[in-house]
């Protein structure tokens, strides 16, 4: 099965960013974001989500380190 918005999904996975985190950043529920990703997004929307993924992924490394 071929997924729409494959670049967004793969970038999020590689950055360790969950879709719920992206959804929260844009002010929608995880379910809404998942439905949005069913169809190809416009170039502008895709670019916006990719920037958010990059920001969240970068913030993860800049936070307080987790200790076990």
Topology:
Layout: H1 6-15, H2 19-26, H3 30-36, H4 43-62
Helix pairs in contact: 1-4, 2-3, 2-4
Structure write-up:
With 68 residues, the chain is mainly alpha-helical. The chain has one domain (6-60). The protein has 4 helices and no strands. The protein has helices spanning 6-15, 19-26, 30-36, 43-62. Helix 2 crosses helix 3 (30-36) and helix 2 (19-26) packs across helix 4. The termini are far apart.
Radius of gyration, rounded? 13 Å
User: Hey, roughly how much beta strand do the residues contain?
Assistant: under 5%
How many beta strands in the DSSP annotation? 0
Let me know the largest β-sheet: none
Shape: globular
**Share of residues in helices:** 55-70%
Please state the average pLDDT score.
89
pLDDT under 50 segments (min length 5)? 64-68
Helix/sheet category: mainly alpha
Order of helices and strands: HHHH
In whole angstroms, how far apart are the ends? Answer: 38 Å
State the domain count: 1
Helical element count?
A: 4
Offer a concise description of the structure.
This protein has 68 residues and is mostly helical.
Give me some keywords for this one.
single chain; 68 residues; mainly alpha; 4 helices; 0% strand; globular
